[in-house]
Amino acid sequence: MITLYNYFRSSAAYRVRIALNLKGIAYQNEFVHLTRDGGEQFSAAYRTKNPQQLIPALTDGARTLTQSLAIIEYLEEKYPQTPLMPATGLHAERARVRALSLAIACDIHPLNNLRVLKTITKTLGASEAQKSAWITRWIGDGFAAIETELAQSAATGSFCHGNAPTLADCCLVPQVFSARRFDVDLAPYPTIVRIDSACNALPAFAAAHPKQQPDFEA
Q1: Residue 87 gets which letter from DSSP?
Q2: N or C: which end of the chain has fewer CB within 10 A?
Q3: How far, CA to CA in Å, does 87 sit from each of 83, 84, 92, 106?
Q4: Are 179 and 11 in contact (CB under 8 A)?
Q5: Could you give the CA distance from residue 82 to residue 205 in angstroms, rounded to a whole number?
C-alpha cells in the first residue's frame, strides 16, 4: 500500500494527490499538520521520512520518496496507466510539459511557501500588506509568463498540453487554488482560468481539492 504524508493545504501534496487520482492508484494518508505544535513536519519521527522536513513524502513498499515532481515522475514510470507525460519519443512535447511544471513548482510556489512567508513576516518584520504584495508580485510574474505560453502555443488544448491532463495540470491547479486563497486577481490570466476550470470538472481533480481532504480545516 502506498502511503502519502499529506496536508490538505500543501500545494506540493495537492499535486501528488491529483496524480494518484488520475492514475487510479489507491493510497492511504498519514497526515502531517504544518502549523500545529510548531509544525509536525519538524518532529524527529517525520525527519526520518524526509530530512528536508517538507510535505509531501510518499512510501511505496520499503521505499520513501520526496519532492512532489520526483514522486509524480516515479509514479509515471512505475504505474504507466493514464500517462501524465506525452509519449516517449516526443522530446520537445515532454520538455514543454516539464517546463510548465517547473515554472510553477520551482519559480512560483517556493517564494510563497509557508516557511518563506514566516521568514519575511516573523524574521524580517514585513507587515501583512507587504506580505500580500510579495505574494501578488511573484504569483503575478509567474502567471503572466505561463499565460503567454499557454495562450500563444498551438500545443495548448483543453489542458496545458493537448486534450488530456499532464504533469503541468497537476502543478497548475494547486497554484491557482493558492492564488485564490491569497486574493490574487486572476482576470489577466483567462487561459489559466479556463484550464483550471476544465481540470476541476474531472473527478480526479475534484477529489484532490483541499476541501475534500479528511484533515481539512476552514
Answers
A1: P
A2: C
A3: 8, 9, 11, 24
A4: no
A5: 14
